[in-house]
What does this fold into?
Amino acid sequence: MVVFNKTLQFLIITFTLLLITVFAQEPITYNENLYNLRFEGSDTYKDGTIILLFTQGNNQTKFLDTKIHLRIIFVNRTILPVEIDYSSISDFIPQCNSSVNPLLCATTLTPKAVYKLQNKYQVEPNLDSKQEFFITELYNATTLVWRKFIVQNPNNLKEENGIYNISKDNTLIYSQNTFPLIEGGYATIMFMQTAGPNNITIHEIYVIYFRDNISIKQHLLYSSISGNTLNLAGDCKNSFDGSGNTFFFTDLDGSKPDIINPQNYNYFRIHFLSNGAISFVDTNYFDIRKANFLDYSAMEIIPLFYGGYLGFNRLIPDNKLIIIYDDNINIKQTLNLTYSFNKNGLNSFVMQKQSLLWFFNYDNIQTWNINYYPLNSIDVTDSRYIYQNPTVSETYPKINEYIQISGTNRNPFDFIINYNKPIALSSKNIIIYQYLDDNNAILRQIIPGQSELCQLINDTTISVKIFVSTLHQLNVKYGVKVENNFVKTQFDDEPLLGISEKIWTFNTSLEALDKSTNQATFTVRLNFDNKTIKIYNEINSKDSPLLQQFKDELVQAIPVDPKRLTIEKTLKIQNENSIFVLIFITIMPPYINDGIERSTNSVLKDLNELIYQKKYNLLSSGDITKFLDENYGVQIIPNFWEKYKVMLIIFIIVLIIMSCIVIFFSFYKNPKFCN
It folds into this structure.
């Protein structure tokens, strides 16, 4: 029976994935209600979200209005139109002096930056968040100015900025490429040239790391002597499989007159780790006998999410050759497709996790459409595709599995993640969510990789403890997000990619209906100090809104029907050693015993565990619940009637019987008493 269930589950997942894949390849057609839209650029986020950028009523050289129009196409194929008015933002579109260099005034928009000025500006979004992006600007070929923006809410943009200056004399930066890091932060590949004595010019490639709360670090990746010019082939990208970052470049021998001849180029692939160490350098990697396929000096090569590379000649407008390579740069497949990727390059048209290439067609009137082409870089039944992670092979629970919750057992659950390479625990977290609906979720538990809740079972397997209180909502959907850098490779400490939201999901069911119990009154304790004395005083004031806020935070963290909780009173205690408030709360039994709302006893046990393990759940982030005393927990106030009612009833019955006997004998002994 178990084998049958597992087989059935596998078939369901496979069938679902096949449907999703087929559905994802269906074309999209969209009719605009705005006239004179001009397509400016496009990009694709790592999760497969496509973004298109249009302007209205602009010509090819000057922006005539202050609005841009975005069309965001989500993986589920819904389209969100967004209009941005940048009239209040000074220098949103950078201005340049055409008298100095008219070529630099060929301004075009890109959806990441909303602007781009040749190679001087580059914008990269965070690898795992659409609320953060990083801008680098090359200034006077000697200074790299960087700015990081974090969108905290629609009206608040936090900015951090800094400057990187070249430390060597007679050195200029002539090209740069910025990319996000798996462990957080950003890095920039910089091509530099230094004028030395005797007309010797040294060309060098550096990687510069910009990490949060860490000083900027620089590492040399490659150096070449006079006479050569280095050119980046495509962008620098992470390989996602723990082998580090990679990029391709050409080293042109300037001493030879025929610079068009591909035999005058040396072709390189460099792989380097997040600590700047070079893992390998490949030379003469391309077969120049196949030069008719591609002009390698103009080649754009992109690492694919599940291994291999995608190649494209970006300087031929009607190029029909998009080539899929394996990990060793052997040609696997040639896609005979006609499309110009000049606007933003091939990389912005690749849906990496879905293994799809998309093509945009616009009639410059009001209708545009998107067509999809499968890259066939991985089988859809492969676990790497299912989890959209090149290093995950299996998990427990499986995707969409049902977990049975015991009504009596309080032992934590052990979730398992199997990887396909040796790993070690790192600094980021696993996060458990409860989905309220398809678009809204609440946090249930955070498990840091370096905590006592995570344990290596062997070189490739991790066990993660999940509290019973985390999963005690019944017949609901849960999700697990594994953050990037939760684990790293065992041998070189390279951060590994995580599992995104809405992929690893599961459901819960109850083994047996929870037995109904009566109401109960209990106390919890809030601890304060001299720094938080203001909140302490306010929470005890008459009609303080903080008590209602405390209840709201408590209801969400448990969670429980708010009608079942009533705050009865507070007791304020302050002395030389402590400042705290006792809050008396009554919890009522479920109004409907349908097996979904838990019993009073079950809720109290969950709340007690939540308070004791506060640092791992939502209570620690509440404005009031963060003051809960984890050493106090939940203290139940005894209900003496419930506890002793049987004894009291027996005592009363015995008392009545004894009274009757005494009265009877009194009448019997003294009949005159009756008269």
User: Anything to note?
Assistant: Helices lie at 2-24, 383-386, 533-539, 545-557, 600-612, 640-669. Confidence is low (pLDDT under 50) at residues 1-23, 94-119, 287-298. The longest strand covers residues 499-510. The domain at 520-637 is CATH 3.30.70 (Alpha-Beta Plaits).
